[in-house]
Amino acid sequence: MANTIYKRNAIVRSLTFKHKQKDEVRTIDPSHTFNEMLANKLCIKSKTQIEVVPHEEILYCVACSNYTEVITTNGQKFIMSKTLSWVEDKISSNSFFRVHQSYLINLHFVNRIQKSNGFNIVLKGAKFAIPVSRANQKSINQIFSEQ
Q1: Has residue 42 been placed in a domain?
Q2: Could you tell me the residue range of the domain that residue 26 belongs to?
Q3: Is the pLDDT of residue 23 over 70?
Q4: Exposure string for 107-136, b = 16+ CB within 10 A, e = fewer
Q5: Around Cβ 95, how many Cβ atoms within 10 Å?
Q6: Is the pLDDT higher at 24 or at 102?
Q7: Is pTM beyond 0.85 here?
Q8: Which of 65, 77, 111, 125 is the most exposed place for a label (fewest CB within 10 A)?
Q9: Which of 135, 42, 49, 131 is nearest to 89 (CA)?
């Protein structure tokens, strides 16, 4: 048996099952359960699989037109068919900051801020410095001066 729940323009089926050994009927609302489980994770879909990446494992994200590259702390690189703005809205955490039109970084992994030839941020485990836009230089200074 299944009940239909309408949530966020999607149809989600609640599962009703009978326990084999006990004469007990349980109903699971997957929209509630799965949303809680995936609250701090980013689901990255490809043709063959869906990769679930916890927010704390994301090092930075790079915009590539209508795609986004997600780079993790262990060096894995995933490509999403979503914009960087979409990813930024989905993550919506205080640990992430959009330092540039093309870069969203995890502030927990900032290793060094270089102030020569413009602002650049070096992240732990990153192979290059990430540029900071002129508009965000003041914000970056404020974030790291308060600590």
Answers
A1: no
A2: 1-37
A3: no
A4: bebbeebeeeeebbbbbeebeebbbbbeeb
A5: 13
A6: 102
A7: no
A8: 65
A9: 42
